Amino acid sequence: MVNVSGSNAPRPVRVPVRVLVVDDSALVRKLMTELLAGDPDIEVVGAAADPFIARDKIKQLAPDVLTLDVEMPRMDGLTFLQNLMRLRPMPVVMVSSLTELGAAVTLDALSLGAVDFVAKPKLDVARGLAEYADLLREKVKQAARANVMPLSPRQTPPRSAGFRHYRTTDRLLAIGASTGGTEAIRHVLAAMPADAPAIVIAQHIPAAFSGKLAERLDRHSRMTVVEAADGQQLLAGHAYLAPGGRHLRVQRNGARWQCRLDDDELVRGHRPSVDVLFESLAKQAGDNASAALLTGMGDDGARGLLALQAAGASTIAQDRASSVIWGMPGAAVALGAAQQVLSLECVADALLAPPSR
């Protein structure tokens, strides 16, 4: 075990944000150090080739944020992350390969408390490094502001436990999220009964990850959770996750709701976009809808939630205290789009509550 115990008291966000880069590749360590150092608000205080070196440097350098590789010698990144979040919680941004295995491992890391993730930089494509650098820097700076909690045992409710009868033929529920959202969505879905109204979900996530995320959410929910398909009918007791790289809209076909996927332009820098999903729901479902905007950086979803409120839908924003990043829900609150601002623990019940008309 790598012992990283120390004070767990929250540290104020410092400028520049102090970063420790942990990766077994000397080339990746050098590249990430150079990319991060290009931002005057970030200081790379050190680099480590494995978790044991990282342990000592965390104690010596007290970084604000860790970037952490998954595959490393002597101890894998997940084991190290688990020890770190149990003994000395701090913001961690995972660096993962965009492969099926990388997707599964990254989702494991997020469940253990990592704040966010970035793909491994493409060392042979120099033209893409500027865009990569902007993303990496922004995620590191946002991570420094995250609420990081000590790791606690997580229990997955069995599909038969706590069953609540809730019948509907017409209501639709919607969830939007970004940074910290994979775990927040899991928490909400785990509290849903097996026959809850259909739920449509937009989470900012790469295409290589969304299928694995849907599988993981399905294992933790009494509902059936799937990656949405174009033309798919929306059924009670099912949740539909927008595929990475595609917008998800809801449309009505006679008496039925359907998923509609497309590859239209990015909206607020994202595809899938929460605004796109929420605005389609406002037009198609109106006061038959309830929507929650969860943790995430930026403001995607805030205008869509406002459109839903104007259409008579019930609107919810996750509160600051329970959000990893209070960007998207905070933007919705600033717009006056949220009728309720709730802790994550209360979101599922609020979504299920009958609409007040």
UniProtKB/TrEMBL annotation:
GO terms for molecular function: protein-glutamate methylesterase activity. The keyword Protein transport does not apply. It catalyses: [protein]-L-glutamate 5-O-methyl ester + H2O = L-glutamyl-[protein] + methanol + H(+); L-glutaminyl-[protein] + H2O = L-glutamyl-[protein] + NH4(+). Residues 166-357 form the CheB-type methylesterase domain. Its EC number is 3.1.1.61, 3.5.1.44. It comes from the Bacteria. Keywords: Chemotaxis, Cytoplasm, Hydrolase, Phosphoprotein. PROSITE patterns: CHEB, RESPONSE_REGULATORY. Phosphorylated by CheA. Phosphorylation of the N-terminal regulatory domain activates the methylesterase activity. Contains a C-terminal catalytic domain, and an N-terminal region which modulates catalytic activity. Involved in chemotaxis. Part of a chemotaxis signal transduction system that modulates chemotaxis in response to various stimuli. Catalyzes the demethylation of specific methylglutamate residues introduced into the chemoreceptors (methyl-accepting chemotaxis proteins or MCP) by CheR. Also mediates the irreversible deamidation of specific glutamine residues to glutamic acid. This is Protein-glutamate methylesterase/protein-glutamine glutaminase. It comes from Novilysobacter erysipheiresistens. The gene is cheB.
